[in-house]
Specification:
Elements: H1 2-6, H2 9-13, H3 15-36, H4 41-67, H5 73-100
Helix pairs in contact: 3-4, 4-5
């Protein structure tokens, strides 16, 4: 959804803001993937915390884009709503991982 906004001509003209949103948006999923490959739940949670921080940056930068008249109120509101929901999910998952605190995530596969 954010990538669609990044394609809008008005935002593309504001190269600095466009690149900041794009980089932070890419960081969300990149940290999730990198964290999933970590050997412990605590390490995974650490990377998800970075994802959550990048999400907060995307939402803040989208507000800047709105105030600069690069995106509409409807576009902003939809992304804020989706972003807040994702932030809550990430927060809950981070708490779960910190509580479970497995030391060897690779050894916890189901036995067949």
């Amino acid at each position: 959804a954010v990538n669609a906004i990044l394609d809008t001509p008005r935002l593309r003209k504001d190269r600095d803001l466009h690149d900041q949103i794009s980089d932070a948006n890419d960081s969300i999923t990149s940290n999730m993937v990198e964290g999933f490959e970590q050997p412990t739940d605590r390490a995974f949670a650490h990377f998800l915390t970075h994802s959550k921080a990048s999400l907060a940056e995307v939402l803040k930068r989208l507000k800047q884009a709105y105030f600069k008249h690069h995106i509409s109120k409807e576009q902003l509101d939809a992304r804020i709503s989706q972003g807040e929901e994702l932030g809550k999910m990430l927060g809950g998952f981070i708490k779960y991982l910190r509580r479970s605190d497995w030391d060897d995530r690779g050894s916890h596969r189901s036995s067949e």
